[in-house]
């Protein structure tokens, strides 16, 4: 039985698109049940419609966080969503939202957390002068960019990089590891001890995803 994913986004939606392609190709045992955006103009909504998915515009402007989240929760529950994936969703979730989907909300962040949480993480990392950066898929908890880490990928910073070229290589890794993380979570073959997400085995969920190397490539360089 395919699991049902609800995507929340606010912008261009390239991570959504990468997940959708993996799902449509049968690489992750899931289907996109709905794509919801708090920004009516989000390019990701239009893309979702082109794919033929249900795309819901729910403007958040002027609404209290709890009131808005209640609407989103209702939409997700109506569609029997098993997993919520934040894909460039530029809003903090209320505690009520997190409680509605315990251990069932993932986020992708374009840095190696816990370094550089918050906005413009790639620029923050670049300006700081780090020699490696990357991206992180994590469960969402009550704190910003903080929950238990499911998957990370390392991207070395090159001498001739700009924040933009670095961001582009990080994005390519984001597209790879988000589906891997979804595969792991949907397989249920993991446990959480403290902050550690321990994957029981090198499960098909991770192998069957975007990684053509066939490996468990969490620390693989994205720059070669
Ligand atoms: C990505 O860099 C993601 O890590 C961050 O927001 C950006 C969204 O990009 N959370 P896209 O809309 O998926 O292209």
Short description:
The chain has 224 residues and is of the alpha/beta class. It has seven helices and nine strands, in the order βαβαβαβαβαββαββα.
Written overview of the protein:
- The N and C termini lie far apart (37 Å).
- The chain has helices spanning 14-24, 43-51, 65-78, 95-100, 121-128, 163-187, 204-207; strands spanning 3-9, 30-37, 55-57, 83-86, 105-109, 132-139, 149-156, 190-193, 196-199.
- Helix 1 crosses helix 6 and helix 5 packs across helix 6 (163-187).
- A hairpin with a 2-residue loop joins strand 8 (190-193) and strand 9.
- The longest helix is centred in the last third of the chain and has 25 residues, at 163-187.
- The protein is built from seven helices and nine strands.
- The chain is globular.
- Strands 3-2-1-4-5-6-7 form a seven-stranded mixed beta sheet. Strands 8-9 form a two-stranded antiparallel sheet.
- The chain has 224 residues and is α/β, with parallel strands linked by helices.
- The site of 5-O-phosphono-beta-D-ribofuranosylamine has 14 residues, from helix 1, strand 5 and helix 6.
């Amino acid at each position: 039985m395919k699991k049902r994913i609800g995507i929340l986004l606010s912008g261009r939606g390239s991570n959504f698109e990468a997940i959708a392609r993996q799902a449509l190709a049968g690489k992750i045992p899931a289907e996109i049940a709905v794509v919801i955006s708090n920004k009516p103009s989000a390019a990701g909504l239009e893309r979702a419609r082109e794919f033929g998915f249900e795309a819901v515009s729910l403007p958040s402007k002027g609404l209290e966080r709890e009131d808005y989240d209640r609407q989103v929760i209702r939409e997700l529950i109506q569609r029997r969503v098993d997993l919520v994936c934040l894909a460039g969703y530029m809003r903090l979730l209320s505690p009520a939202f997190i409680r509605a989907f315990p251990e069932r909300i993932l986020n992708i962040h374009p840095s190696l957390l816990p370094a550089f949480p918050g906005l413009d993480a790639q620029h923050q990392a670049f300006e700081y002068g780090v020699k490696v950066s990357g991206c992180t898929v994590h469960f969402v908890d009550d704190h910003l960019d903080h929950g238990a880490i499911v998957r990370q990928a390392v991207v070395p910073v090159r001498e001739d990089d700009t924040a933009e070229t670095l961001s582009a290589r990080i994005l390519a890794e984001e597209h790879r590891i988000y589906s891997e993380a979804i595969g792991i979570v949907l397989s249920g073959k993991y446990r959480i001890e403290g902050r550690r997400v321990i994957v029981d085995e090198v499960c098909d969920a991770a192998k069957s995803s975007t990684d053509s190397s066939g490996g468990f490539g969490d620390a693989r360089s994205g720059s070669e």
